[in-house]
Design brief:
22 strands, ten-stranded mixed beta sheet, alpha+beta, globular, 30% helix, five-stranded mixed beta sheet, disordered N terminus
């Protein structure tokens, strides 16, 4: 191959990369992250058409592709039921015809909880919940307001409905293009603990959204009728604990959540605090991460690789608009991070497509520069508005990268120690890899802190705990009251990334080993690393992860009891995928 051929191939690869970016951008501009085109049964190709499928429910094929694009399965049989009884009909058809059934929301996920990457003609029917199962109603007649919503509603639509009724959530995941069902399956969370002297509003929680659930409507197996039926589980039912964060092993069609009065928030950004100060040792003075938790309760640090100053966002409750804050009446106010400028696009292409890892330090530093300039240009340093407009800030056009994720359970007064030890370890390992000309991490570290899923936050008596929530409290450590969420992001397929992630995972488990802190996986992200892949280490899958949900929990309410409930209500394992099977879940 001559130099001209090499040049033409490089041009072709770059065009493909830019086309891919443009496609994501266009999809986000229209209506969020849109699924790839439908294919009718007549265009189905080589995969056999399922027989005897209910005639009143349209069946088609559609490509499944997750957020990072590293899980892609072509032409999966899919349907979009109009209502819950059609869901029941599809599930019973699947049992009788040798198929599995997987609910498909927005596909904004990293872990293969729905379908494994590379599956060919899988015997799976995907239920698109987002087309029709999106109804929402609000009840403010009781002491605690409630919202009942179907599983396919997006978080942006749900929060908009709440805002229109004068209601909101204390914290929520940053993307608006998540389905409620998907968020509840993996105990989706935001970032929030109470500021000093802050009282929890009635109906609120500082844990995950799973802890707001008052009742669930699920499709479960009934031994009397020997069929799958629709059943409602209330929060006081001990069996509901297994369904509140079911990790894809159940099919929820509707949920009723408690909510609280909406709040005005102020979000301030800082980019001038060195990481050595922000993540200083416990007890240090200055602008530490813990000091912002004390003053505001809600903070997130985004630390780009090979930079010394994280982007810190701090939300505070602010009923009255501060004099210098900019009021916003819409979400997604960081346009500079939602759409890559040309220089970042070019660097991303060279790193992700051409394998020029040596550009990673420049890429990290350029990202940081873009943030600073973007905050200045848009007036985004100091924002004020209703909670939805401050808490939603990730759009489908944001850079698509993969991530690992862990929750470190600990005491609030131990947060600074956790962050200092992690930052020291992370910085040293990045430098060690760089000395070998290896750059496994080209995305930022993201740090959040939440409360735990305390059952006492639930309105009414005897609210059970979400058994499989990563932030379920530990009864043997009643003093542990917060979780530090640690995520590290990188382009899919980055050389040495899996080895790096494995080192991080093993260090976390060894360092936060149950004396002052403990680690659980963030279900939606990467974990269980071998040197080749995530979710691939048999010891992690079969021992470490299950034990993280056994240790410190009562015998009748732990990993094993949750598995028993999930198997009871899905004995045919219609809702399981290869990942749940490997976990014994």
């Amino acid at each position: 191959m001559n130099a001209r051929d090499d040049q033409q191939q490089a041009i072709s690869r770059r065009r493909n990369f830019l086309k891919k970016t443009a496609k994501f951008t266009a999809a986000g501009a229209l209506a969020g992250w849109l699924p790839l085109a439908r294919i009718s049964p007549a265009q189905a190709g080589n995969c056999a058409t399922p027989g005897n499928f209910p005639l009143d429910i349209a069946l088609y094929k559609q490509t499944f592709q997750n957020w990072a694009g590293d899980i892609k399965v072509d032409d999966v049989w899919t349907c979009a039921p109009d209502h819950a009884q059609q869901v029941v009909k599809v599930v019973n058809w699947a049992r009788d015809n040798g198929y599995k059934v997987r609910p498909r929301g927005m596909m904004h996920n990293w872990s293969p909880l729905t379908v494994p990457a590379g599956a060919v003609c899988p015997s799976v029917i995907l239920l698109d919940t987002t087309s029709h199962l999106t109804a929402v109603s609000i009840d403010t007649s009781g002491a605690v307001p409630q919202v009942t919503a179907q599983a396919g509603i997006s978080m942006e639509a749900l929060l908009t409905a709440l805002e229109n009724a004068g209601l909101g959530l204390t914290a929520t995941p940053a993307p608006g293009d998540l389905s409620l069902g998907g968020v509840l399956a993996i105990n989706g969370h935001g970032t929030a603990v109470p500021a000093k002297n802050e009282q929890r509003p009635l109906g609120a929680t500082y844990g995950s959204l799973s802890n707001l659930v008052l009742s669930l409507k699920a499709v479960v197996y009934d031994t009397v009728s020997r069929a799958y039926i629709l059943k409602t589980f209330v929060r006081s039912d001990p069996e509901s604990g297994a369904l509140l964060a079911h990790v894809g092993r159940a099919l929820i069609v509707e949920a009723t959540l408690q909510v609280s009065p909406n709040q005005r928030l102020r979000c301030q950004s800082w980019t001038n605090i060195p990481y050595t100060e922000m993540f200083a040792p416990k007890g240090a003075g200055g602008r530490t991460f813990s000091s912002f938790l004390d003053s505001a309760g809600r903070a997130e640090a985004i630390w780009f690789p090979f930079t010394d100053h994280p982007w810190l966002k701090v939300w505070s409750v602010s009923p009255v608009k501060p004099a210098f804050a900019r009021e916003t009446t819409v979400p997604f106010n960081y346009t500079f991070s939602d759409n890559l400028p040309a220089n970042l696009n070019d660097l991303a292409y060279k790193i992700a497509t051409l394998g020029q890892g040596g550009l990673t330090p420049l890429f990290g530093q350029t990202q940081f520069t873009v943030v600073g300039g973007g905050l200045t240009f848009t007036g985004g340093w100091d924002l004020w508005g209703w909670s939805k407009n401050l808490l939603l800030y990730v759009k489908p056009t944001t850079l698509r990268i993969t991530a690992n994720g862990y929750a470190v359970l600990t005491r609030r007064d131990n947060v600074q120690r956790v962050l200092n030890e992690f930052a020291t370890f992370y910085r040293a390992r990045v430098a060690a890899y760089q000395a070998l000309a290896r750059y496994p991490m080209n995305g930022p570290v993201e740090i959040r802190v939440t409360g735990l899923d305390q059952p006492g936050d639930v309105a009414g008596a005897n609210g059970v705990s979400p058994i499989l929530s990563a932030i379920r409290p530990r009864p043997d450590h009643a003093d542990w009251d917060v979780a530090v969420w640690l995520d590290i992001l990188t382009f899919p397929g980055t050389p040495y990334a899996n080895e790096f992630y494995r080192e991080v995972e093993q260090w976390l488990e060894a360092n936060y080993n149950g004396n002052d802190a403990a680690v659980r996986p963030e279900w939606s992200k990467g974990w269980g690393y071998s040197n080749q892949a995530a979710w691939a280490d048999p010891i992690a899958l079969q021992t470490t992860v299950p034990n993280a949900f056994r240790t410190g929990q009562p015998a009748g309410s732990n990993w094993d009891s949750a598995v028993a409930v999930l198997n009871k209500y899905d004995p045919h394992r219609l809702y399981s995928s290869a990942l749940q099977d490997s976990l014994g879940l």
